[in-house]
Design goal:
- Helix content is 36%, strand content 9%.
- It is of the alpha+beta class.
- Strands 1-2-6-3 form a four-stranded antiparallel sheet, sandwiched between helices. A two-stranded antiparallel ribbon has the order 4-5.
- The chain has two domains: 279 residues, no CATH class; 85 residues, Leucine-rich Repeat Variant, CATH 1.25.10.
Length: 371
C-alpha cells in the first residue's frame, strides 16, 4: 500500500504541494477556484440549455439543478472552500493513432482504450487523500473527489480556475494541451489561492462550428446535444431521425470532428503516451461491424462473449442494441454492397425493432447506391 505523505517542510505552500502531487500522478494541468462563489453566468447558460430541452434523453442533466450553481453546501461538500480542477490529456501522437485498427478509428479517441472513469477516479481518490493529510487534528481538512459522479459544471469551474478557456464548441481548451483532455475535481475545505480565469482565445476562428456534420451548434458556445453525433450514438437510445443518419457517416461511438479541426489541437505537440489506458483495446483488431450488428440483448450468449472482449471499454454505455443500430448506420454509410446480406438479415430478424428499422434504411441506401 502506498502511503501518501504531506509536504516535507512547513514552508511548502499547500498549492505547491498539491500541484506537485497531481503532476506526479499524471495530471497535465492543475488549477484552483473558490468553491463558495456561485457560477452565475455559467449557471444561467446551463438553465437555458435545460429549459430548451437541448439535453435530450439525458434526464440526469436536469436533476439537482440548483446544486450546480455552487460547489459548497449539502449537495456537494459542506463547508467547501476550494475546487481543485485537474486535466488529463488523452490525445495520442498522430503517427500512433494512424496505426489504430480501422474499427477503432470509428470510435472517439477517449473511448478506444479503457474507461477513463476507472483510472481517473482512482487518481482523484488518492489526491483527495493527500489533501486531507494537509490538515491537522486541530484543523482537519475534508476533501471529496469527483469524476462524472456529481452534479457539477466542471468545465465552468476549470475555466474559473484558470485551467483554460471555453472554446466555441463548448469544450475547455487548455493552452499547450488542447481540448482533448479529461476533467476531474477535488472539493476541499482547505482554502487555496484561486487562479486567474483566461480570456477566450478563439478569435474569428469558426472551424469547429463548420466541421460539425449535423449542424449541432445553435451558435458559438451553444450546442444542441439532440443533434450531436456523440449524443446520438451514445446517449440516445431510440430511433435516430433520418436527417442525421447520413451525416453520422462512419462514427460508431462518439465524434471528435469539432476537436480534430481545432488549431489548439493541431498545434499541440504534447500527447498522451502511446502506451497506457488510452491505447486502443486489442479487441478492436479482431471485431468487425458485422459482429456488432448482430449484438442482441445483454443476456444473449454471443453478446456476452463480445462484452467480455470489450471488458473495461466505455463503448458498452451505448448498450448492445445501440451499438447494433450504430453498426447498421456505419455499414450503410460506407456504401459497401458486400454488407447487404448481413443487413438484410438484421432488417428481417433482429429482435430489436429499432435495429430492424435502421438496417432496413441501410439496405435501401445500399440498393440505391448499387442501382
Amino acid at each position: 500500500m502506498v502511503h501518501l505523505q504531506p509536504p516535507k517542510t512547513q514552508a511548502t505552500r499547500p498549492e505547491e504541494a498539491i500541484v506537485a502531487r497531481a503532476r506526479e500522478m499524471g495530471f497535465d494541468a492543475v488549477g484552483f477556484a473558490r468553491a463558495d462563489l456561485p457560477l452565475e453566468a455559467d449557471f444561467a447558460h446551463y438553465r437555458a440549455f435545460i429549459d430548451q430541452g437541448m439535453h435530450g434523453e439525458m434526464s440526469w442533466l436536469a436533476e439537482n439543478a440548483e446544486v450546480r450553481a455552487v460547489a459548497t453546501g449539502e449537495g456537494m461538500l459542506a463547508g467547501a472552500r476550494s475546487v481543485i480542477c485537474l486535466a488529463r490529456r488523452y490525445q495520442r501522437p498522430r503517427e500512433d493513432e494512424e496505426r489504430d485498427a480501422p474499427l477503432a478509428r470509428t470510435v472517439a479517441r477517449y473511448a478506444r482504450g479503457s474507461d477513463y472513469h476507472n483510472h481517473l477516479r482512482r487518481k482523484l481518490r488518492k489526491l483527495a487523500a493527500f489533501v486531507r493529510r494537509l490538515g491537522t487534528e486541530e484543523a482537519p481538512v475534508f476533501a471529496r473527489p469527483l469524476c462524472d459522479d456529481a452534479p457539477i459544471l466542471e468545465r465552468a469551474w476549470a475555466a474559473r480556475a484558470g485551467l483554460g478557456f471555453i472554446g466555441k464548441n463548448g469544450l475547455l481548451i487548455v493552452p499547450g494541451q488542447g481540448s482533448m483532455v479529461l476533467l476531474g475535481e477535488v472539493l476541499t475545505t482547505l482554502p487555496l489561492t484561486p487562479g486567474v480565469p483566461m480570456a477566450e482565445r478563439c478569435g474569428s476562428c469558426t472551424r469547429c462550428l463548420e466541421a460539425c456534420p449535423t449542424d449541432a451548434f445553435v451558435r458559438p458556445f451553444v450546442l444542441d446535444a439532440r443533434r450531436c453525433i456523440a449524443y446520438l450514438t451514445i446517449e440516445h437510445h431510440s430511433d435516430i431521425a433520418e436527417e442525421f443518419r447520413a451525416p453520422i457517416g462512419e462514427h460508431l461511438f462518439g465524434c471528435d470532428d469539432c476537436q480534430t479541426v481545432c488549431p489548439f489541437n493541431a498545434s499541440n505537440k504534447q500527447r498522451a503516451p502511446a502506451q497506457g489506458p488510452f491505447r486502443p483495446l486489442e479487441a478492436w483488431s479482431s471485431l468487425d461491424l458485422t459482429t456488432l450488428l448482430e449484438l442482441r440483448g445483454e443476456d444473449d450468449e454471443a453478446t456476452q462473449a463480445v462484452w467480455a472482449r470489450l471488458a473495461g471499454s466505455p463503448v458498452r454505455r451505448a448498450t448492445a442494441e445501440g451499438l447494433a443500430r450504430n453498426a447498421a448506420l456505419v455499414l450503410g454509410n460506407r456504401g459497401d454492397a458486400e454488407a447487404l446480406p448481413v443487413l438484410r438479415r438484421a432488417a428481417a430478424a433482429h429482435p430489436s425493432a429499432m435495429v430492424r428499422e435502421t438496417a432496413g434504411w441501410a439496405v435501401r441506401l445500399l440498393e440505391g447506391c448499387r442501382g
